[in-house]
Amino acid sequence: MSTTIIPTEMTFFSRFESDILSGKKTITIRDEAESYYVPGTTVDVSTYEEGRWFCRLNILTVDPIAFNDLNEFHAQQENMTLAELKAVIHDIYPGIEKLYVVNYALVK
Ligand SMILES: CC(=O)Nc1ccn([C@H]2C[C@H](O)[C@@H](CO)O2)c(=O)n1
């Protein structure tokens, strides 16, 4: 028998908190280790640095994406330029090509 563990928590760097709460940032791009969020579930969101809770998000979709296929639409959904988004991802996940786009909605 196998057990499926559904993640109920997610962290973001605190610099992204205001964009998430204002609805300007509606996706996050994660590596394989954080690809197991389940559409239709809700996660509690805290800052990565302090572990301070700041909202709940409803997970809408989780889709694989190659680093080289990131485009202007992803950047717009991150409230960044494409160059900024690629630099952020390269900093967080250096050398990782296989990524996942997690699309979410703020629970109000
Ligand atoms: C621990 C960890 O990796 N935390 C992360 C990862 C990513 N983000 C943000 C940064 C960008 O806006 C997107 C794309 O990765 O997601 C984050 O806040 N915290």
Automatic annotation (TrEMBL):
Q: What class of enzyme is it?
A: hydrolase
Cellular component aspect of the GO annotation: cytosol
Domain ASCH per the UniProt entry, residue ranges? 10-108
Q: Which InterPro entries match?
A: AC4CH, ASCH_domain, PUA-like_sf
Q: Which reaction does it catalyse?
A: N(4)-acetyl-2'-deoxycytidine + H2O = 2'-deoxycytidine + acetate + H(+); N(4)-acetylcytidine + H2O = cytidine + acetate + H(+); N(4)-acetylcytosine + H2O = cytosine + acetate + H(+)
Recorded E.C. number(s)? Answer: 3.5.1.135
Indicate the residues that form the catalytic site: K25 (proton acceptor), T28 (nucleophile), E78 (proton donor)
State the UniProt keywords alphabetically. Hydrolase
One Gene Ontology term of the molecular function aspect: hydrolase activity, acting on carbon-nitrogen (but not peptide) bonds, in linear amidines
Q: Which HAMAP family match?
A: ac4C_amidohydr
Q: Name the job this protein performs.
A: Catalyzes the hydrolysis of N(4)-acetylcytidine (ac4C).
Hey, which family's this protein in? Belongs to the N(4)-acetylcytidine amidohydrolase family.
User: What protein is this chain from?
Assistant: N(4)-acetylcytidine amidohydrolase
